[in-house]
Amino acid sequence: MQSGGTLTEGRSRPPLVDVGSFTGGVLTGVRGRAVLARLGDGVEPTALAQAAQDAGAKALFVTDDSAGRLTAWWGTDDNADRPLQIATVNAADAARLRAAGGRIDMTGTPNTPYVYDLSEGHRGRIPDRDLTYRPGRRELATVRARFHAVRPVGGGEFRYSLTDAFPVGIGFRERIDYPAERTDHVSTGPGQLWHESVTVGDGTLEERGGLNRYQGGAHTALDWFKPVWHPWLGTGLGWGQERSGAMMRFNTPGWGTPGPTTPASATCGATTAA
């Protein structure tokens, strides 16, 4: 799935139309169908997405001549999502779609009931073997995550991987609708740490989980945005209370949830020097 499209819910079997290379203009004969297109050289992804939307396409699958899968923004000029499903495929998958012809089976689940967060580091070397990672059940931790909300609301969340081999967390928050429950399966290799960030709305409120090391085969429960019980000087923002000579700094979140594993902070917190 690409940013700027809408993930449809449920199952459908739309007819597939291969329109070939798109270099601009109007798409015809694709209303209610899934479109397979090659993005022409110099053509903006949003131009192809707009043409598919104007033509009434139900889904858009895009490939190009570069290795891997294209990642781009496919939404409108005012940063809104388009009312069709948009995905990019590599050359091999595009060939499979063409060969299949007829109709394609699509299944959409906007809020997944499970997530696999997998990471395997190779410190100081590039392995000369197959990098396929197939962890067993005893190598993964199971996390039962509950996202609380007093009323339905959207938000975002992500679990960042930090390892001895690569101590920088890279990623971006994925959309999620609250309230929700989810089962996560998480890597637990040597030196593996995870940092989680969960937000409500457009980032109005945020909770962070600090640095967590999970044990293989263990089962853990996490509660996000559970009711507030007391003030909490947590460590979820990466640092707590510090002193350097005559300078003291206090990280003072405005509130905290009752669970000890999810220290929280409001994004409007500030640093005070004394």
TrEMBL record:
This is PA domain-containing protein. Residues 253-274 are annotated as: Disordered. It comes from the Bacteria.
